[in-house]
Amino acid sequence: MMSAISHSSDRYLLKVLQQRAGRRKTLRKMRQDMNAFGALYPPATNVTIRAMTVGGRPAEMLTPAEHYSNYVLLYLHGGGFVMGSIQSHRQLASHLSAAAKIKTLITEYRLAPEHPFPAALVDALSVYKDLLKSGVAPRHVTVAGDSAGGGLCVSLMVLLKQNHLPLPGACVLFSPWVDLTLSGHSWHRNFDRDVLVKKNDAKRMAAFYLNGKDPFDHLSSPIYADLSMLPPLLIQVGSDEVLHDDAVSLHVRATKFGVSSYIDIWDKMPHVWHFMSPVLREGRMALHQAGKFIMTHMQGGYL
């Protein structure tokens, strides 16, 4: 959709990220680096942050100065199921919160390999159920996430449907990882183009998360699930990502099940380029689009 990154400062940042991604690191170092990356830019201005516990998990409520009080966005962070935290994703979630003018609950789920599948999904379900118990109507909730967090959003909705629990009103996914078999052709086609995600690293993360479980399980790889009755989806992905085909396949499969799914493929954008919205125009534009989608569907409208 958009042009390639052009500013020298942005190219430098991508070079640093590529160097970091290319190193073989311990999990502790990976987690430290991801938190440091999330702190490169401050949270959105005029967004207040309140720490809390929801569903037994650490969480923060991000509230823009101007917001629609009846709606809440639940944000599930990425990080390959083995890293990521409120600290690493607070900045991204705050800018999405400001773009949508909606309160955003960002939470932490237990990470693999210490807590393999289905621990993250159990935590996401607990947080969602607690959010509804607080009085928020399901139709007024949007779930959103990036990368593994995006896949976790889809798994959560499949689990909710499986347990006959109310689904959220909408879902926004940034570069979602929904197939832990790594069978998409873009894992090979974009091998040299994707500056952040490498197949060997992804295999390692998937193995940590699955801990011997079947990668075709519809709750670990929701691309294989029955997606009928899911709420409207917005999927954003970069053309050069190894996860490009995960996003496209999810869109195609959701559409076949009758879901209102919208996919936007951004030309030459890196994995979850939304992180760089403070310095990247395409990041700001993508978040603006996501914010518009959220409020359109929360208010019962259509694109």
Write a structural description:
The protein has 303 residues and is α/β, with parallel strands linked by helices. It has a single domain, classed as Alpha/Beta hydrolase fold, catalytic domain (Rossmann fold, 3-Layer(aba) Sandwich), CATH 3.40.50.1820. The protein has helices at residues 8-21, 27-38, 86-100, 119-133, 148-162, 186-189, 199-210, 244-256, 281-298, and strands at residues 47-54, 57-64, 68-76, 102-107, 141-146, 170-174, 233-238, 261-266. It has an eight-stranded mixed beta sheet with strand order 1-2-4-3-5-6-7-8, with helices on both faces. Helix 2 packs parallel to helix 3.
Task: Give the topology.
Blueprint lengths: L7 H14 L5 H12 L8 E8 L2 E8 L3 E9 L9 H15 L1 E6 L11 H15 L7 E6 L1 H15 L7 E5 L11 H4 L9 H12 L22 E6 L5 H13 L4 E6 L14 H18 L5
Helix pairs in contact: 2-3, 3-9, 4-5
